[in-house]
Amino acid sequence: MARTTYDELLDAGVHFGHLTRKWDPKMSQYIFMERNGIHIIDLNKTLTKVEEAAAAIKQIVKSGRKVLFVATKKQAKDIVAEYSKSVNMPFITERWLGGMLTNFATVRKSIKKMSNIDKLTKDGTYSNLSKKERLMIQRERIKLETLLGGIADLNRLPAALFLIDVKKEHIAVSEALKLNIPTFAMVDTNSDPSNIDFPIPANDDATKSISLITGIIIKAIEEGLEERKREKEDEAEKEAAQAKAKADAPEVADRTPNEGGKRNRKVAVEADAAVNDETPSAESTEE
């Protein structure tokens, strides 16, 4: 079953590109035509590419890894944040800090600092500080939450990036390239798709278009998570069955040889007795 239809893409305005004078020639393969000075995206290619991206991202999530969503433009940030939270995936919707990936160790220190501030408020230390110190700590906490709140649970580099508007998020793209992290992105007619592993030609300015494409990716992630959960449950059941079989096996093994030995000894004794009865005695032989 297709993840979306041609009509849904049309209704969301996914086919509307930028003005022809703003186009990137590398997007020519995804452009269907020009109309009223605007490039129209080929929705047949959008359908193909979104299917490819969804299938690939599903496998990544199924393996237990994380996908980082990046959308700092005004139209996309709220949509992406809401979708990411629904599947417990990390996201960046404010400014992309330089070195967020290439200098991840330093970013982790900032996240740890944020958790340390939370500990201060819980153990009562915060209330013992002066008013000025509390205000400074509170401001720093808000700043860290705004910039890094979406990746607070990200303990290692993400397995992939999903971006809205690669032109705006060019720093994130370049960092992902350096670290060989796969990139998935909505690519408009004014963007360069050559550095994106899974480009999805689509209007990256309209909220309906962003919501539709991001929703398809989120649906694929949900499928991946569900399949991973089922596999874990099946594996747990299999291990439990094997453990039960292993626990039962020694009991049978211990009992069987002993009983077998007793039977064998009994047969041997009976056989000896029979031989003694049938063998003529020395006295009878002499007679």
Order of helices and strands: HEEEHEHEHHEHEEHH
- So what's the oligomer here? single chain
Radius of gyration: 34 Å
CATH domain fold name of the domain at 6-101 and 157-232: Rossmann fold
Level of helix content? 55-70%
Total strands: the figure is: 8
CATH homology group of the domain at 6-101 and 157-232: Glucose-6-phosphate isomerase like protein, domain 1
Q: Which structural class fits the helix and strand makeup?
A: alpha/beta
Main CATH class of the domain at 6-101 and 157-232 = Alpha Beta
Low-confidence stretches: 278-287
Proportion of residues in β-strands: 5-15%
Number of helices: 8
Measured between the Cα atoms of the first and last residue, the distance is 101 Å
Describe the largest sheet: 5 strands, parallel
Mean pLDDT: 85
Which strand order does the major sheet show?
Answer: 5-4-6-7-8
The geometry reads as flat
CATH hierarchy: architecture of the domain at 6-101 and 157-232:
3-Layer(aba) Sandwich
Textual characterization of the structure:
This protein has 287 residues and is of the alpha/beta class. The chain has a domain at 6-101 and 157-232: Glucose-6-phosphate isomerase like protein, domain 1 (Rossmann fold, 3-Layer(aba) Sandwich), CATH 3.40.50.10490. It is 57% helix and 11% strand. It is built from eight helices and eight strands; from the N terminus they run αβββαβαβααβαββαα. The chain has helices at 6-11, 43-62, 74-86, 104-123, 131-148, 170-178, 207-278, 282-286, and strands at 16-19, 31-35, 38-41, 67-70, 91-92, 160-164, 183-187, 198-201. The strands form two sheets. Strands 5-4-6-7-8 form a five-stranded parallel β-sheet, with helices on both faces. Strand 4, helix 3 (74-86) and strand 5 (91-92) form a beta-alpha-beta unit. Helix 2 crosses helix 7. It is flat and about 65 Å long. The N and C termini lie far apart (101 Å). Residues 278-287 have low confidence and may be disordered.
